DNA sequence: CTGAAAGCGCTTACAG
DNA sequence: CTGAAAGCGCTTACAG
């Protein structure tokens, strides 16, 4: 019985199979330079001794770790204990994509203030980095530039814009925002408030805003700047933003929240204010987190295909690691209509 | 500028600092056998060359990976794309606890049917395993026994019962269930339905059921077996279970759902049936997932302290890895009262 | 306090 | 097709 104290090595297998240790290694790496019969003997021994290749040793030799690292970073201001559910859903799909590609995934939560840029790959624990998180892009960008300068392999999830350092995968936020506005306008809404940051500090939110704005202009409805309130992606900030909006006493008949969490907080504030959703105010979110369909009323929102996103992040990073060409990509956005925007 | 092609090694540092490579290693390991001035010279060189110890090499030498693996396993029957939010919250706290203890975390999602028992530690990628997941314990138990037989270091999150293989950390499910019943009885409810498996196949749910049952007996209210309906932890199963309960046409004035997800599904079924929560039926869940407070009405539930749980899982596993004594532990449960159980 | 040397378990030219 | 040998980058007795 295999036991911690006596783990089998390739030498044990070699002895057992009556071949050299080098041959064992060849078999296990799938080298074609091995006679079929010899191969079988080795494989039998591997079976019998429940042998597994020591990944540290092989990685030390090949200089390839077979491991990717996922850095989930959070704004230090946010509540430590609550991770954005959208990212957790991405985490699931990234993990699966790694497994499918025969790689392991190291996970780490980082504060945006940490020196995360220079750790995992430098200590040879990972071949490349996947960066996931909202945060102030203006603060964040120099770190990306440092990664590029260091030659670190990485992909990030986020807005896909011209002139960004490195390779990015993201949702078509502009199209998503546009769809939301189109939907609301189609339902007769005319004064659409936007809850979420709308500046280059938060490019994903900004693109959603710009998409919405573009459609409103096309429809001849000028966007009113008093209808935009800053908010990060949390229920609490959504609640506060909606309160702030109500305090301005400007008329509006719809809310486009930059994320589902913001939308859920906004609905709470609206209800407290005696406004009904969707009768008085239509509300639309973004992300389609698990909670969205269980909100009251169920939330109309924009789906970001996290399954495909995880796959694309992993595959793109692996191309980078292998020095193959890779480029930024945008995934299509898709509107899901639920009650919160219904007439 | 440090560049992928010319990563500094301890030999480079040695040359730079004018010492032997062995001394560099001593400094970096914090050995006391180094002269203060020599140490400083080495540290300066480390700084200058942005050197990081290669974890693979050091791990190969010391036979300690500095890495833990988290295996999140799911019932193959469950929807692949949705991970239980409760586990995601645990994931966050486990990651942080690992970081605090200077370890990395490898994450993997496993189907309960996979041969997960013999992988991570065998290929020396991790020093130990954290097992997280619901699943049929009767199927699951032989795998745990195999892990024990192999001498694998592991801790699992789950029910803490006598005679289990290995070390377990879990919430005091019995006390939690008891609290729920006490709360409901205190609010005048007499016929409490339980939605969730109540058998040794799902020991966590079973303990919750037994705690509830115990209090009902103490209160002189015999538990009615027609008020229990099987369900796994998902919104859909909760919905179906509540429908099945309603179809039985037995009277009940409260629902104790074995998890928040089940509770949320049950509320949907109750509402469809024209029953108001909490006026007609009080509903209580378990877990306090992020969604619970945003449900309509906000859900009374039992908090499991995931922060402390993650810490305890990691610390206990690390004790095991170091061959220090470690034992199973139960975390206290805590009731949070929200509207769903209010009169 | 410091250095020379062995060795962790692999992979892969090199030679046959 | 196979083996002997070097070497990946560390850590740690051993000797001084």
From TrEMBL, chains A, B:
It holds the Pfam family LacI. The keyword Transcription applies. The keyword DNA-binding applies. GO terms for molecular function: DNA binding. Residues 8-62 form the HTH lacI-type domain. Gene3D superfamilies: 3.40.50.2300, lambda repressor-like DNA-binding domains. It comes from the Bacteria. It comes from Lysobacter brunescens. Keywords: DNA-binding, Transcription, Transcription regulation. This is LacI family DNA-binding transcriptional regulator.
